[in-house]
Specification:
The chain is of the alpha/beta class. It has eleven helices and 29 strands. The strands form eight sheets. Strands 3-5-4-6-7-14-13-12-9-10 form a ten-stranded mixed β-sheet. Strands 15, 16, 19, 28 and 29 form a five-stranded parallel β-sheet that branches. Strand 15, helix 6 and strand 16 form a beta-alpha-beta unit. The longest helix has 17 residues. The protein starts with about 25 loop residues before the first strand and ends in a 6-residue tail after the last strand.
Length: about 625
């Protein structure tokens, strides 16, 4: 698209599938000088109907949704084999390992070295993971675990044409629960009497109005002492909701609510969210935990607690942004699963989208300032730069591997000596020789997922790229490792998908290959139900603390998005003040992490202002390797 050639070029990445913005400094590529222009993209989650990080995306069902099986997962600190996976990911897709970008023959020796480092093939590990998941899914009993390990039962709705949404919300709830301990997820209609007693806490997401909630579950909620967190619909089916819990509910309030007050902080809420929030005639002796603020300043309860029941009057898993009321749920889980947790506020950030064309002097300058101020940091590396269509080089293709850039390699090692932790960021940060979605150039495009542009420059998440499979994904990681080894660098144990986007198969391989992911993550219908993965139905999620997600990989907090100095189209800039304001909102999570990213091609003053502002809020910066 010619429009991008007239704009400062930049990288992707962020919840919206977005990222940063501009480069005013031309970069030299060996003998040839290229003036690269970066594609601007948003630094925060964009509220758009096609953005799965904002709310789940997908069509209604046109047939009956079969009742999913029971699924289980482990605590984030666990090192046991994966317990929840999707069986189809264990083998390559019919498209297998076709790949447009070949590794140069000079990498052969390094590639062999990288392959030798793999003690067992990723395919074998994913097969084992899937077998474990299938074995577990056949069981409907409670988890077997140490008494001191918190466990969560996640119950969700499945009926009606929007029944598939229940699975997406259950995935998001299970991911959060993994921070505290193990979890089991099942449809609420599959609940059996007494199951609640096997768990430390229960989460029920009422996403379908009128879901036939089993009377045995309703009876168990009313008679058990187990903490229950109930969200949104069907609370009126609970016996004693008025007489026992004192919640004299009025019905859903459809007022415009743009903020929710919790712990004296004003959390964001998408004002155009018209799904409604439960209101009450009275709440008796119940404790009001959080309060909705209407546009006229009047208030009513957002979350209440009475006895063992915590009720949230809407679904916090939809219409999410940075600093959102979603964070309230993330904190309330501590009350149910880890009530003695001490308050602690850590922070970390990434220097984002470094590729072989980057200016090493800039990187050294940034590393010096961070080291002088005792701020550890992460930095992402994409080891192969490609412009296959010559988009920024007058139609002449460019291929620049990292091992040819000795000054940059030296700067990378210098950053490591100054407290930097390397994070792998794909192999080429683009796909084949097509716009995906912008230019086909490293840093502009997505590598592991097909994305196209809408006329308003929002993104459409289409599905896996052509040729996607577990074998293909592993080949990308192996090629990236080989390039790093040839460059004399240690292969990192942390990875971030370019544009935060990968298929289910890619994500399972990523989780099996790297110890940690620093990311926001896409999830798909079918991951819990055990059915085929449906790429037309998906949701994205960020976390305020580390979790072990349904791909069985550890994922770090990714809460604040990135710095975006200028506006693009209808998308506003995201400046240090915006990042800092959301970091303040993030303080409501008692053991939460404030995390952001910064493109080293922007003025260092943006980074300095953001780091100092977050420190002033009481956060302590730590290395991502310590989280």
């Amino acid at each position: 698209m010619d429009i991008f050639k007239n704009l400062p070029r930049r990288q992707v990445l962020l919840g919206a599938g977005a990222a940063l913005i501009q480069s005013a400094i031309p970069v030299r590529l060996r003998a040839l000088t290229l003036k690269k222009k970066r594609v601007p993209k948003p630094g925060g989650i964009t509220p758009h109907s096609s953005n799965p990080f904002f709310h789940p995306v997908g069509p209604a069902l046109n047939n009956k949704f079969s009742t999913p099986k029971v699924r289980k997962g482990l605590r984030v600190s666990s090192t046991s084999p994966p317990m929840t996976n999707y069986a189809e990911s264990a083998t390559p897709s019919s498209l297998t390992a076709a790949e447009a970008v070949t590794v140069a023959s000079a990498l052969a020796a390094a590639k062999a070295t990288a392959e030798q480092e793999e003690s067992s093939s990723t395919a074998a590990r994913v097969l084992a993971a899937s077998a474990a998941a299938l074995a577990l899914s056949a069981s409907s009993t409670g988890p077997v675990q140490a008494a001191t390990t918190p466990s969560t039962l996640v119950l969700y709705d499945t009926t009606g044409q929007w029944g598939w949404l229940g699975e997406m919300y259950a995935i998001m709830a299970a991911n959060l629960a993994s921070h505290f301990g193990s979890w089991t997820a099942m449809p609420v209609v599959s609940y059996t009497s007494g199951t609640i007693k096997n768990y430390s806490a229960v989460i029920y997401i009422g996403s379908t109005y009128g879901e036939p909630v089993p009377t045995i579950f309703l009876a168990d909620v009313s008679t058990a002492t187990t903490p229950v967190i109930w969200m949104y619909d069907n609370i009126w089916q609970l016996p004693g909701i008025v007489s026992q819990y004192g919640l004299n509910w009025m019905g859903f309030d459809y007022s415009s609510v743009a903020q929710v007050t919790y712990k004296s902080q004003q959390l964001k809420r998408y004002a155009a969210n018209a799904a409604g929030i439960m209101n009450y005639w009275s709440v008796g002796s119940a404790t009001v935990l959080a309060t909705c603020v209407r546009s006229d300043g009047t208030t009513f309860p957002w979350a209440v607690r009475s006895g063992n029941l915590t009720y949230i009057g809407e679904n916090p898993f939809s219409y999410i942004s940075e600093g959102d009321r979603y964070l309230i749920l993330c904190d309330l889980l501590f009350d149910a699963l880890a009530p003695t947790t001490a308050t602690r506020h850590q922070a970390y950030f990434r220097l984002e989208d470094i590729d072989p064309t980057f200016n090493p002097t800039n990187l050294r300058t940034i590393a010096n300032w961070l080291s002088t101020n005792h701020v550890p940091f992460g930095f992402t590396i994409t080891p192969q730069y490609l412009d296959p269509l010559g988009y920024y080089n007058n139609g002449v293709p460019v291929n620049t591997p990292l091992h040819t850039q000795t000054a940059l390699i030296s700067a990378i090692k210098y950053m490591q000596s100054k407290g930097g932790t390397m994070i792998l960021h794909g192999y080429t940060h683009q796909y084949s020789n097509v716009a995906n979605p912008y230019t086909g150039v490293t840093g502009d495009d997505c590598e592991f997922y097909r994305i196209t542009l809408n006329p308003d420059f929002s993104l459409n998440y289409q599905g896996p790229v052509s040729g996607d499979s577990t074998v293909w994904a592993q080949s990308r990681f192996t090629s990236a490792k080989a390039e790093l080894i040839l460059s004399g660098l240690t292969v990192p144990t942390i990875h971030t998908f370019p544009a935060y986007a990968g298929s289910a198969a890619d994500s399972f391989v990523e989780a099996a290959t790297f110890a940690v992911r620093s990311a926001r993550v896409l999830y798909f219908s079918g991951l819990l139900s055990g059915g085929p993965i449906d790429y037309t139905r998906l949701a994205g999620q960020y976390f305020p603390y580390s979790v072990r997600d349904v791909y069985n990989g550890k994922v770090l907090a990714d809460t604040l998005g990135g710095i975006q100095p200028t506006a693009f189209n209808t998308i506003p800039p995201r400046l240090p003040a915006d990042i800092i304001a959301d970091a303040q909102r993030n303080l409501v999570v008692r053991d939460g992490v404030a995390s952001f990213f910064y493109n080293p091609e922007d003025s260092i003053t943006y980074l300095q202002q953001t780091v100092q502002g977050i420190q002033a809020l009481g956060y302590t910066f730590v290395s991502p390797a310590r989280l």
